[in-house]
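dude i think i finally got it to work??
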Amino acid sequence: MVHYIPTKEFIMRKLNNSATLTIIAASLILFISTTVLSQARYPSGLLNQKGNFTRGAADAIGQPFRGLATSDGIIEGLFPIKETGVSSRPVREAADRFLATLNTAELSRSHFAINDPEWRHWSNVDVGIFPRWGISLEEMSGDQKVAAWALLEEALSAEGVEQTRSIMRTEQRLFELNGDSIRYGEEKYYLTFMGIPSEVDPWGFQLDGHHLVINYFVLGDQVVMTPAFWGGEPVVTEYGRYAGNTILQEEQNLGLELIQSMNNSQLAKVVLSPDKVRNNQIAAANQDNLTLDYQGLAGSEMDSSQKLKLLKVIRSYVGALREPHAEITMDEIGQHIDDTYFAWVGSDADDAIFYYRIQSPVILVEFDHQGPVGTLQKNTPGVPSRDHIHTVVRTPNGNDYGKDLLAQHLAAEH
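look at this
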């Protein structure tokens, strides 16, 4: 009998074929398991919510921008282009440095024209139910994160940067409580840029994520930082990585201090309802064209100490902007102090749950204690508490996103 002895080449071909089949099989198994896993990790209910929020944003953006106004309509001429004498160069240079770190794929989803609808594509809800453009801190390289934070440190005050970090830390606590990595995480915040950073031409950027939205428009040395959304839950982090982290206490306490200074006749006008039984905020995402009439007590009906308290409340929000641009904004607000209205829902007790609104021709602020969403383990569903806060700041009469300034600039160019 003749025994066949396989050659070395034959053996190698068999081994190669076997290895190839093994790799193909392993890849197929990995693909199938990954597909099943990814489907299982994005529940259909969450996808449906995502669709609803996407449609809501699309419907709102589909309406031509007008700006927040009263029933009397837009007041013209409130926001002239002017020299402030305060250079925006540090912010511009920081933006250039960050943009230089992006590759072409990152730029294509992060950089837009100055008048792109991307400005208006934001929401305060989590990233699991509202998709964002741009590049997130979560996916940035180490160098990109350094450059991103350097931009924020130039654009914001020290207090604004700390508040930004603190709100992001609440997201870490929500992840620890819920274990949902699709919805919650400390670095799920996205940067986009509109226009090209310039000394003379308009440009800006947006930071967008859960409970934290900053729209930052620059024209020359003028800066508009609205709409801005600051919020979070839990308000006080009791356990976990950031135990002791606390947000928005100054805004809460100064509002309470103001209403506690008022007499009975003033309270009769200020308090819209003594009962705080629901979420009251109305000027957040998709409300760029909101019609909202003044309610409450006008600044003209306050004494001098109350007017100072009112300005102090407003300053707790505007102060997130870098100095001295924050002071310039406060000067503009102060010019309308007599036409600035303060309204309240809820009790004025030291431990009250409440909502307040401040509104003038040039500023809108809302503060709202909300019902729980991510802290249902410890808070009663549907009942507002101090453990979940929403705030929003807007520039009424057409200058959110610096739109009025932009329109004047573009008109002057043609």
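Residues 18-40 have pLDDT under 50 and may be disordered.
im so relieved honestly
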